[in-house]
Amino acid sequence: MLHISFEQVERARADHREQMGLPHNAAAQHDAFRRNAEDRVGAHLRQVLGFQFPRFVALRQQGRFFDVGIAEPHAVTFAGGLAANGMLPVFAVYSSFLQRCYDQIIHDLSIEQQHVVIGIDRAGIVGSDGETHQGLFDVAMLSSVPGITLYSPATYEEMRCSLYKSLYEHTGVCCVRYPRGGESKLPAFDPQAPWAIEPKGAKPRLLLVTYGKLSAQAVQAAQTLSQQGVPTAVLKLLRLLPFCEEAVEQAMQAEYVLFAEEGIESGGIGQMFGSRLLENGFQGHYRVLAVHDRFVEQATPDRALALCGLDAQSMVQTCTQWMKEQQTEDFDR
Predict the structure, then answer these.
(1) CB-CB contact of 127 with 299 (8 Å)
(2) C-alpha angle with apex 155: 173 to 170, nearest 5 degrees?
(3) What percent of the chain clears pLDDT 90, i.e. is strictly above it?
(4) Could you write out the three-class secondary structure of 261-329?
(5) Residue 76, class by beta-carbon neighbours within 10 Å (0-12 exposed, 13-18 middle, 19+ buried)?
(6) What are the tens digits of pLDDT across the range 73-112?
(7) Phi, psi at residue 31, to the nearest 5°?
(8) Whole-angstrom distance between the N-terminal and C-terminal Cα of the chain?
(9) Pair 233, 199: CB distance under 8 Å
(10) Are strands 232-237 and 239-241 parallel, antiparallel or unpaired?
(11) Are 249 and 220 in contact (CB under 8 A)?
(12) Helix (H, G, I), strand (E, B) or coil at 38
């Protein structure tokens, strides 16, 4: 048995983040929660105190901070009970461990229409955390549950806006998924809008649709394709659920639509988006680029994205080859 103080844990985590070149962004990610002064807001913690939430948050929120260890399903039911009694619980959990809570989310939260906010940490590919910690299944899992609100921010400002809306503007089960590490460098997408296109007002031949951390890769790919003579834009989704029908209307104008998703393909938003396009009579070409029927092995995030064909270079190659093949087929007809 190891006896480790909170101070040692915090110091080791800080040293690790410095070695990995990662920003100390926990406070930024949870800024909206930390600033909140309402007594009815409480938080649950899945991990060792000081990892998901900094220790000073727990100390400042005494009486409203509950460490449930690794009992994730219990935490969801516990949150539902608190919500039923007028509290506003916030539950922070790794994406991979939220998988254990599917039954409780349905029966103890969604059916009961309880207002609970779930912060889904480690969303997407996590790199050195390993194969078992890849956050690839939460979107497909949650998309099957009625009444879910799901955000996937890519920047700190989007994170703050999404968390604020989940706390104060929405009802029911609200989830905010965010990746390991820092924010992405992106154009000025509106952090308040459920979706946005860049360049604004664009009517491109090729449209890349994506969300979350993968948006940075899509923006790089779009810039390269545009330089190669293919007018390309990026449609970035911030709110994944409820589904944004207006985003589909925007995509209808493109000849080619590629949906890039850092998650499992089956049941993902990419498949849902394609289904909506077909229902609306889309006459162009559509393709989903996601993790197809596999587990992603341990590697650096950049290496794992490349192996899955989800980095910017792979997107460029996929789109170039795909458009070439479609043009050949259309010519043969």
Answers:
(1) yes
(2) 25
(3) 67
(4) EEEECCCCHHHHHHHHHHHCCCCCEEEEEEECCCCCCCCCHHHHHHHCCCCHHHHHHHHHHHHHHHHHH
(5) buried
(6) 999 999 999 999 998 999 999 999 999 999 999 999 999 9
(7) -60, -45
(8) 71
(9) yes
(10) unpaired
(11) no
(12) coil
DSSP 89: E
Sorted by sequence, the CB contacts under 8 Å of residue 178 that are 6+ apart come out as 29, 119, 120, 121, 123, 152, 153, 159, 212
Q: How many CB atoms sit inside 10 A of residue 54's CB? A: 18
Which of 85, 42, 88 is closest to 67 using CA atoms? 42
Joined tokens for residue 96: 């991979």
- Which candidate, 243, 309, 22, 264, places its Cα nearest to that of 140? 264
What's the pLDDT score for residue 22? 41
Dihedral sign (CA 56, 57, 61, 62)? negative
State the pLDDT confidence band at 13, using cuts at 50, 70 and 90.
Answer: low
Please report the pLDDT score of residue 164 as a whole number: 94
- Cβ proximity of 3 and 49 under 8 Å: no
- For tokens 């050949």, name the residue: 328
Residue 68: predicted pLDDT: 82
Residue with tokens 């070695």: 19
Greatest mean pLDDT among 1-5, 49-53, 131-135, 308-312 lies in: 308-312
Alpha carbon distance 113, 106 (integer Å): 10
Q: How far apart are CA 91 and CA 144, in angstroms?
A: 20
How far apart CA 50 and CA 62 sit, in angstroms, is 14
> Are 180 and 129 in contact, with CB atoms under 8 Å apart?
yes
